[in-house]
Design a protein that fits this description.
Elements (H helix, E strand, L loop, with lengths): L2 E5 L2 E4 L4 E8 L6 E8 L6 E6 L5 E3 L7 E6 L4 E6 L8 E11 L2 E6 L3 E6 L1
Parallel strand pairs: 2-11
Antiparallel strand pairs: 1-3, 3-8, 4-5, 4-9, 5-6, 7-8, 9-10, 9-11
């Protein structure tokens, strides 16, 4: 059974840092592109960062230079290091795995972790 479990969210002041973790079980990690999304109240869910199976990364413009996504294939875990946090980073952060198998991609989501940045 595939499970994605996020952790590391919390309350932090403007300018602070947090590191989110997403542990993936079910044997899909090494064949999955891993993403972090976020959703603020009243707003659509948006893609924050992506790391491919080959560790190629991409970021939303709003977080470039502040956030770093990384993966540890030995631990089946993806991380999101968030520095210089701003109030507009407040959201529920979700981990997503895009498992690639041949011509098929299947998506799996975690339950989310709340990040609140106080001004």
């Amino acid at each position: 059974q595939v499970q994605l479990v996020e952790s590391g969210g919390g309350l932090v002041q403007t300018g602070g840092s947090l590191r989110l973790s997403c542990a993936v079980s079910g044997g899909i990690f090494s064949s999955s592109t891993m993403d972090w999304y976020r959703q603020a109240p009243g707003k659509p869910r948006e893609l924050v960062a992506t790391v491919s199976t080959g560790s190629i990364t991409n970021y939303a413009d709003s977080v470039k230079g502040r956030f770093t996504i990384s993966r540890d294939n030995a631990k089946n875990t993806v991380y999101l290091q968030m520095n210089n946090l701003k109030p507009e980073d407040t959201a529920v952060y979700y981990c997503k795995a895009d498992r690639h198998s041949g011509f098929t991609t299947v998506a799996y989501w975690g339950q989310g972790t709340q990040v609140t940045v106080s001004s």
